Amino acid sequence: MNHNISLIQFAVLTYHNKSSPAKITRLSNIALNGAIALLVSVIFTGNASYFGGIERSWMHVSDMLTMIILIAVLSARVAKSDAEWAPKNPLGDDMGLNCKTLLLLLLILTAIKVVVCTDFVDPMKMLADGSEMTDVANWMYKFTIVLILEVFLALLYAVLFDDDAGHELVVFTIMIMTAVSAGLIYSVQKYLSSWMGLNSNAIWIQVGILVLICIGAIGGGRRGSSHRPGYANVSN
After folding, report:
1. How many angstroms separate the CA atoms of 31 and 7, rounded?
2. What is the number of other CB atoms lying within 10 angstroms of the CB of residue 2?
3. What is the residue-wise DSSP string for 17-72?
4. Sign (positive or negative) of CA dihedral 217, 222, 223, 229
5. How far apart are CA 143 and CA 150, in angstroms?
6. If both were cysteines, with which of 60, 117, 135, 194 could 47 make a disulfide (CB 3.0 to 4.6 Å apart)?
7. Where are the alpha helices (DSSP H) in 46-163?
8. Taking the CB of residue 134, how many other CB atoms lie within 10 A of it?
């Protein structure tokens, strides 16, 4: 779920800023940190051919090469001597009922979630009674935390360096992918516990609330756009 959201967020941000070299440099710099985190995760996953490894040999080699190539490409972009760097947006400007405020709130919540899931949540709480946490499942849970960190990095770029239209695109992406992700786990809900409504229709109530908040932020941003010169919404 978090993998899809983080990947699509970075793809959307790259497409949106493709005509702005300065913003692409900033985005590449933040994505570089994310790629390094993923490479470290792959290293700790280990090759199943050796003691303690989990991932199949050819898959592990493929993941290692993919991450190394990605890091090389991003490093080359950031290290260019003539690279332009976009200035940081004033954090407190243009706050209100809009996408920037929502993204800032999600940024803070995502940072908290990384810490809480790492040190304060027992992954066994997510499993139905009688189910066991295997080594692979435990690894997947920890890897999911890394993917949450990737989402945090994408949100960090959007809040600090992107414009109003970029904020709206990210909020729209979050809204769509959250609904899609909830649908993807529908078939395995019987294996989940009642913790946070994972095995019931309560998850759809949570999704509905988030969708309404996103729609409200997009609508509020567009209504207030007349007071912010240069604003361009997604439809433009």
Report:
1. 10
2. 19
3. TTT-HHHHHHHHHHHHHHHHHHHHHHHHH-BTTSTT--B-HHHHHHHHHHHHHHHH
4. positive
5. 11
6. 60
7. 57-78, 99-119, 135-161
8. 9
Which two structure tokens, joined as six digits, stand for 48? 């199943």
Q: How many residues does the chain have?
A: 236
Q: Give average pLDDT by consecutive 10-residue segment, the chain, 236 residues.
A: 70 94 96 95 88 82 93 96 93 87 96 94 77 82 91 96 94 90 77 67 86 94 66 50
The closest of 198, 158, 230, 163 to 1, measured between CA atoms, is 198
CB 165 within 8 A of CB 16: yes
**CB-based contact 172:218 (threshold 8 Å):** yes
Torsion over CA: 210, 213, 218, 219 (sign): positive
Contact 169, 226 (CB under 8 A): no
Closest listed residue to residue 163, CA positions, set 11, 7, 23:
23
Residue 145 CA neighbour count, 13 Å, CB half: 18
Measure the N-to-C terminal CA separation of the chain; round to a whole number of Å.
29
CB neighbours of residue 173 within 10 Å: 18
CA distance 20 to 17: 5
Backbone phi and psi for residue 55, each to the nearest 5 degrees, phi listed first: -85, 140
